C-alpha cells in the first residue's frame, strides 16, 4: 500500500483498494538454455524422402484448374533416376542432410515412453542445423555417408501397389547439437531421451514410429559420444 509523507493514502492506492486490486511483484527468470553435442552412428539404414518439387507443381496446377481439371490423367513414364535424386534433402554445398525437425519430433514423441508432457518438451528441446534445404528452406543436419538408390514396393492410399524410389544410407552417422532448457532437462536427460529415439523411435522412412505402419526397422542409431 502506498502512502503520502503524512501517512495518508494517495489517490491511486485508495482507488486500487476500493477496486480490490492487490499489487504483486511478478518475477520471470531468464531462460536457462544449454547446448549439448552428440555423435550418432546408424545401427540400421536411414532412408529419406523429400516431397518432390514436380509433385508440388502438379498439385498446384490441378488446384488452380479447379473444375476444369481433367478427370482422366495421362500416365507419364516414371523417371526412376529423377525420383531418386528428388528424394534427397540437399544443402547449399550439395551435400545431403537430415531434417533437424526429424530428431526434434522424435525426441518429443519419445516423451510418451516416460510419461513426460510432450507439450512441455516442445518448448524445451531444439536441434540446431548445419545448413538449409535448397528446395524447402528447412534446417538440415549434415549426414556422413554415401546414398544409394533404393527401390521397394508400397501401397498407395487407393489400394494400388506402387514402386517407391528413395535415397538410402546403409552406413551413416551425424553430429547433433541439441539446445535445451536446463530448468526442464539435464544433459543426462537429453542423452537418455536421444538414446531412446535411436532404439525405439527412429528417424526417416520405415522408422519404428511411422504414422502409417509399424516400420521396417530403418532409421535407428546409437550414441557414440
List its traits:
225 residues, alpha+beta, three-stranded antiparallel β-sheet, 27% helix, 25% strand, disordered N terminus
End-to-end Cα distance: 57 Å
Q: Secondary-structure element sequence?
A: HEEHHEHHEEEEEEHE
Mean of pLDDT? 85
- Number of helix segments? 6
User: Which segments are poorly predicted (pLDDT under 50) over 5 or more consecutive residues?
Assistant: 1-7
Q: Give the count of structural domains.
A: 1
Beta-strand content bin: 25-35%
Helix proportion range: 25-40%
Give an overview in words.
The chain is an alpha+beta fold and 225 residues long. The protein has one domain (34-67, 74-223). It is built from six helices and ten strands, in the order αββααβααββββββαβ. The chain has helices spanning 11-19, 53-65, 80-86, 100-110, 118-122, 187-201; strands at residues 33-42, 46-48, 97-99, 125-128, 131-132, 139-144, 148-155, 161-169, 173-181, 221-223. The strands form two sheets. Strands 1, 3, 4, 5, 6, 9 and 10 form a seven-stranded antiparallel beta sheet that branches. It has a three-stranded antiparallel beta sheet with strand order 2-8-7, covered by helices on one side. β7 (148-155) and β8 form a beta hairpin. α4 crosses α6 (187-201). The chain is elongated. The relative contact order is 0.21. The model is unreliable at 1-7 (pLDDT under 50).
